[in-house]
Amino acid sequence: MQTRAVKEGDEYVVNGSKIWTTLGNYADHMILLARTNTKTERKYDGLSFFLSPMKVAGIEAHPIRKVTGEYGFNQTFFTDARIPASCLMGEEGGGWTVAMKTLEYERGVTAGQASAYWGVAVQVDDMIDELSAIEQDGEPLLSDPIVRDDLVGFMMEAKALSLAARRMAIPALGTDYPMGLALSVKYRGTEYERRMKQYTASKQGAQSALYVGDDDAVSGGFWQRAYFSNFGATIGGGTTQVQANIVAEHVLGLPK
Ligand SMILES: Cc1cc2nc3c(=O)[nH]c(=O)nc-3n(C[C@H](O)[C@H](O)[C@H](O)COP(=O)(O)OP(=O)(O)OC[C@H]3O[C@@H](n4cnc5c(N)ncnc54)[C@H](O)[C@@H]3O)c2cc1C
To answer: For ligand 1, is residue 241 a contact (CB within 6 Å)?
Structure first.
């Protein structure tokens, strides 16, 4: 957190950079957490939370190419960028608390996307469709009892995630730690999807190494791209490991 915002009259002058802003090159506004005080004892203090306009002189968003070959996020640079002081949300120096609350809700949204019925169940059906076209040693892949067992495991997990997503919508189940269920569903759902896509691609045998753009890629490389893309979901809004730490410490009350 080295990006600085210095108050001058009714503006803040911002210098620094911020990486991984999704669709930042299209956005009109962004969440900006910047250091307004460099002399605090705790690194969490002295940060301020702004809802900053992006179409301002001195703010430039540079798109970054992802492992999938597509563009999606940006690094944003601030060079003497002047933003109105009215963009400050909450108290100056109290931005960490606002940021953590905002992140909780982002994780809740990601959990919803990762686990909602349409999100997971449709993909389980897609996976079965894809695998039903594959043969192994002259037999349909789906006649292999080990593969069938794996698929039942994926279907049960999809169902459990879908039910957990519905439970998230019931406030009475979240009184102890309101976002607890969403936090756990975020990391379980995104990791589940990553494993499921990896499994499907791996059953294509040697062709699983072929990617989008290769004429011989199975289904145009759809599963490979979906698999790579899913890593983003396990990282964005808080990595799997960090989510697991938060659930362990703040929801289950386990020691650090
Ligand atoms: C698709 C995508 C979209 C994103 N969109 C946005 C966006 O719109 N806006 C935005 O601000 N950011 C966005 N991000 C950034 C995202 O929030 C961060 O990448 C994420 O929080 C991880 O932080 P980091 O990259 O600094 O990784 P680090 O914190 O450096 O983590 C690196 C590794 O160390 C592990 N690690 C770190 N701390 C711990 C710990 N305490 N215990 C155990 N393991 C640990 C992590 O799990 C990870 O494996 C996006 C990221 C992705 C992938």
So the answer is: yes
Give pLDDT tens digits for 191-247: 999 999 999 999 999 999 999 999 999 999 999 999 998 888 898 888 999 989 988
Instruction: State the distance from the centre of ligand 1 to the C-alpha of 232, rounded, in angstroms.
Output: 9
Does ligand 1 come within 6 angstroms of the Cβ of 17?
no
Domain span including residue 190: 98-251
Q: Does a structural domain hold residue 256? A: no
End-to-end CA distance of the chain: 23
Residues 77 and 102 in one domain: no
**Last residue in a domain, options 93, 120, 141:** 93
User: Are 121 and 225 in a shared domain?
Assistant: yes
| Ligand 1 atom nearest residue 18's Cα | 11
Q: What is the pLDDT of residues 76-134, one digit of tens each?
A: 999 999 999 999 999 999 999 999 888 877 776 666 655 544 445 568 889 999 999 99
Report which ligand 1 atom has the smallest distance to the Cα of 240: 47
**pTM (predicted TM-score):** 0.87
Give the Å distances, CA to CA, from 123 to 48, 56, 145, 200. 41, 41, 21, 11
The crossing angle, in degrees rounded to 10, of helices 117-132 and 180-202 is 10
Q: How far is CA 177 from the centre of its chain?
A: 21
